[in-house]
Design goal:
The structure is a single chain. This protein is of the alpha/beta class. It contains 19 helices and eleven strands. The strands form three sheets. A seven-stranded mixed β-sheet has the order 3-2-1-4-7-6-10, sandwiched between helices. A two-stranded antiparallel sheet has the order 5-11. The chain has a two-stranded antiparallel ribbon with strand order 8-9. Strand 1 (about 115-120), helix 5 (about 125-140) and strand 2 form a beta-alpha-beta unit.
Length: about 450
Amino acid sequence: MRRYLRLAVLCLACGFCSLLYAFSQLALSPEEGAGGGGGKPQARVASWLAGGGRGAARGAGSAATAAHPGGAHRCKDFSLCYWNPYWMLPSDVCGMNCFWEAAIRYGPKVQPVERMHLAVVACGERLEETITMLKSAIIFSIKPLQFHIFAEDQLHESFKGILDSWSFLQTFNYSLYPISFPSENAVEWKKLFKPCASQRLFLPLILKEVDSLLYVDTDILFLRPVDDIWSLLKKFNSTQIAAMAPEHEEPRIGWYNRFARHPYYGKTGVNSGVMLMNMTRIRGKYFKNDMTTVRMRWGDILMPLLKKYKLNITWGDQDLLNIIFFHNPESLFVFPCQWNYRPDHCIYGSNCQEAEEEGIFILHGNRGVYHDDKQPAFRAIYEALRNCSFEDDHIRSLLKPLELELQKTVHTYCGKIYKIFIKRLTKSIQDRYDRPPKER
């Protein structure tokens, strides 16, 4: 009984294959009846493949209409983007190509590596500072970096020469841009606060293809991977478009709450030296303002704000950002002071609790403290990173000499808490350079 059952199953399978063959011959018969030169019947098949519900095929139009007289070789080099039953293929398409295509289409896909976009604006005597900042970003970061460097024309060759000499690292790309402002107000924007500083306001309008961006001042030093602040983008809620740190932690020494003659964000304002941006959201948002009841887009609001508050602002573009986020507080994500640690956090006594607990993540040497003796703790960190090479051993050996230098600064308020300057730096070096390469 089992033999007959097996024989019946075998007969059914053979019959099914015969039907498939018959269908394939029926599909080919109109073309063959035309003597192999009929383009129209074949074009109808191709049009279904190209425009049907399953999606278009790569190159289907040109391949399908090119009939070969005299019965061309059926196994033509041609692939389809979507799986199709064998008997419904054009006559000159080999089914094997579809198997290859299916393997490519449904096989494991390699995801493109995400690059972190970092922008900086350099004018005047800021070349060395900027290079040191970029070096600190490269040393600790894990994902590849894309630098967007806006600089005066005379600095371009210097940037190019130095960055090209680092190309062996293969961990970053860079683009150099000229300083540019809207032509009708270029002079006014360039002179606002420090030379070229207001360029950052126009980054969403210039870098139109960039979705998210970390802007930093030239006097920034990364003491932990850029990856970590980049990850804060995932913490934005649906209304937040940018992230900055408070200008002050202690209102009694705050500048905005004591002296500002314009609106500012929160209790003490925000500092724009480290600014994380979702630029797609910035470009798409309509901002509330105190100039009109109509909400305005980013590119339309900047000049009216400058005209209204030009005589009332002290810190230039940072003041304009404070005004914008005063009227749109739901759009700002505020990160703690250790992500933008400045002399103000220690020159009158320590007032950044997060840095005391976890260490400094990003050091901001404003007030020119990298280049004078007023805050030697800041200068010691800067010089250590400036003089450091990219060799693993050199980076590992950076800590001991640095700590000795910091111990010489204990006569200052910032020097008294010097351990917070190297607390996170030590961990960053251990995590990045003391582990085996496969674990990094």
